Amino acid sequence: MTDLTKMKIAEARDLMKAGELSSRELTEAHIAAVDAADSLNAYIVKTPEIALANADAADKKIKAGNQKGMTGIPVGIKDLFATKGVHTQACSHILDGFKPEYESTVTQNLWNDGAVMLGKLNMDEFAMGSSNETSYYGPVKNPWRATGSNNDFVPGGSSGGSVASVSGYAAMGATASDTGGSIRQPASFTGTFGMKPTYGRCSRYGMVAFASSLDQAGTITRDVRDGAIMLEAMAGFDPKDSTSVDIAVPNFEAALTGDIRGMKIGIPQEYHLAGMPGEIEALWHQGIEWMKAAGAEVVDINLPHTKYALPAYYIIAPAEASSNLARYDGVKYGLRDAPNGGNLDDMYYTTRASGFGDEVKRRIMIGTYVLSAGYYDAYYLKAQKVRQLIADDFKRAFEKVDAILTPTAPSAAFAFGEKSDDPLAMYLNDVFTVPASLAGLPGSSVPAGLSADGLPLGLQVLANAWDEETVLKISGVIEQAAAFSATPSEWWR
Questions:
Q1: pTM higher than 0.90, yes or no?
Q2: Which CATH number applies to 4-262+478-482?
Q3: Which of 108, 194, 257, 491 is the most exposed place for a label (fewest CB within 10 A)?
């Protein structure tokens, strides 16, 4: 049998159903792989005992004929999903020692399906970052390296641990979250498939909040079919989340027909950026040709307010963050830094000063500023109006086309430290992903090629709200046409 850690979810599911593989075998192989991948720093907490217990329960479920899509499949969980009795700190010092007494709905749905938890995954602190360099537990290393180089590259963020674990064969799939591109951009950097569903498709209950009107759970897998299987298990209405929408969850795997004949694919002219690397532009053109070859009609469209998306996002998201993170004050849980002789205000000050990292502090201060008296109308309210204009742009576009095709990120993965000292350069990594996040639309990143340095590049597929099936269908066609078979060198083993 092939290396168990290199199997796809669908393949392992079918072998377990046929009785040719047990979840325990699969899980033991992945527990060893997690240990072997320590140098990637993808996992901050390993849960082998829980994993083996989950695997044994899954094997019983399969034997009884009650197998579901994710039964027996080993997965990693991003550290912002609450896991009962297990470390959940959003990779922040301020939540030191926090182990929730409740389970997030997304992870509970996976456990109900019979999935196996390998551990908690590293991420940018409170999901604030595009490179996984802001984690209290240190940066995650991209399993990919440039051709002929031993230099380390960032995996993207904030879901850096999620993509590194899947790309590095230390999980078959991973939960992730996307606020402004934190599923799609790291997927592009690591040659993995990232799927962000419509806002409201997956419950936010039990997710540590960054920006409540933007945060959405999603998946990282090694191919499109696996993403469809995992998303179906995670999604569904949840009365505990006021933003969860009561709409039926389709059979996402059934959408992978490979037939997109007659579909109209929009190409937004505003995504042709000045100074964009030629290899990104070339990959986009290649994607357009793949769409035409598959029988789709390519249509030029305009999304005129795209250029305002990043400025609007970096007002709205920090504003919501400053409100959400006000709860971390050292009183009820997590870090408490109370100086001798100090009063309550001193405890607040020292706890938050030592508990939050620089990027989180930067966004809290920006958010507090734009919400303050005299600036609310000038910044926050105006940004919300721009957000509506961006959503209206997409609404008009989807009256003409079935989906939109763009690059996922403006570059391949970059080296550690290359952009961390320049927040604006870092924020530009989200230039292609933020607009759809502001509009709450579903989107994916599909591995579609390699840069001149041998690093993965992705194409982004967007569709109308609640039409994840179209995203998955077109993603599958791109996957088949690209025939992306490159793999990292496994230097970490």
A1: yes
A2: 3.90.1300.10
A3: 257
